[in-house]
Amino acid sequence: MVITMLKIKNLTVTVLDKTILEHFNMEIHAGEIHALMGKNGAGKSTIAKVIMRDPSYKIKSGTIFYQEQNLLEMTTSEAAQSGIFLVNQNPIEIEGVTNAEMLRTSLNDAGKNDMNILEFNRKLVNLCNQLHLPTSFIHRDINFNMSGGEKKKNELLHMWMLEPQCIILDEIDSGLDVDSLKLVANSILEYYNQYKPAILIITHQKNLLDILKPDFVHVLDNKKIVQTGDYQLALDIFKNGFSRTSIISESDQNE
Ligand SMILES: Nc1ncnc2c1ncn2[C@@H]1O[C@H](COP(=O)(O)OP(=O)(O)OP(=O)(O)O)[C@@H](O)[C@H]1O
Ligand SMILES: [Mg+2]
């Protein structure tokens, strides 16, 4: 049975009275990997933050459903508790709250903490080893004073602990060295193979998509999705740029 995880219909979003997205549509089913591409400033991070219920973005019209639930009626923590997970383009630093504290609280709040403290710590140690992070990271403040690449791996640590069903990765590849990029991409692939979540990848780079092989590739331009294709579309864009796609979008508008 096909399970619809995210259904975004006719969404129009403004920030500070500027329209960023208009008549934006997207549907993602469980077990699908989607890539969202588009020029700088097109609105890719905006849709990620809207899904994660960032209150800075005003919804002027349209709907977002997460499974059967009206996502627009949820707060950020309700969205997280119901299984949505976002790795921000610039992961937020939270001074004064450690990874372990946040993860234990989040798992408890979501009613998913079936581990005793020993099992919880053992799982974190294993994950640190897998992600090539020192185990001292377990008790580091969330992303605080971590390097750019460490923050991305630290976010993956959260993902593995929280076991989300719907994952949005906003430029998780930026700032990673070549070895770390492979490690991160393979870790995401392993998670995908184990849990079959819905994944939305926002990226400007080919390397991550080469490993994760998205089922669908969307191009965001002129405030909405102007083209959807398979992995070949991403390869075309990496080769030829967005210009061809922009022409399609202009002719669409004139129709
Ligand atoms: N909180 C905000 N306040 C003001 N302007 C914003 C805000 N968030 C986004 N914008 C503007 O909305 C537009 C879309 O931004 P967004 O970050 O979504 O782009 P993007 O597609 O993710 O670009 P990039 O590829 O560079 O990350 C930009 O012009 C940006 O300046
Ligand atoms: Mg962005």
Features:
255 residues, alpha/beta, Rossmann fold, six-stranded mixed beta sheet, four-stranded antiparallel beta sheet, 9 helices, 12 strands, 40% helix, disordered C terminus, binds adenosine-5'-triphosphate, binds magnesium ion
Describe this structure in words.
The protein has 255 residues and is an alpha/beta fold. The protein has a single domain (4-254), classed as P-loop containing nucleotide triphosphate hydrolases (Rossmann fold), CATH 3.40.50. Helices cover 40% and strands 29% of the residues. The protein contains 9 helices and 12 strands. The chain has helices at 44-51, 76-81, 99-109, 117-130, 148-162, 178-195, 206-212, 231-240, 243-254, and strands spanning 4-15, 18-29, 33-37, 58-66, 69-70, 84-87, 94-98, 141-142, 166-170, 198-202, 216-221, 224-229. Strands 6-9-10-3-11-12 form a 6-stranded mixed beta sheet, sandwiched between helices. It has a 4-stranded antiparallel beta sheet with strand order 2-1-4-5, with helices on one face. A two-stranded antiparallel sheet has the order 7-8. β11 and β12 (224-229) form a beta hairpin. α6 (178-195) packs parallel to α7. It is globular, with a radius of gyration of 18 Å. The structure holds adenosine-5'-triphosphate and magnesium ion.
Please list the strands of the largest sheet in the order they lie side by side.
6-9-10-3-11-12
CATH superfamily: P-loop containing nucleotide triphosphate hydrolases
Low-confidence stretches: 245-255
The name CATH uses for the topology is Rossmann fold
Instruction: Name the CATH class.
Output: Alpha Beta
**DSSP strand tally:** 12
Oligomeric state as shown: single chain
Bound molecules: adenosine-5'-triphosphate, magnesium ion
The outline comes out as: globular
Output the structural class: alpha/beta
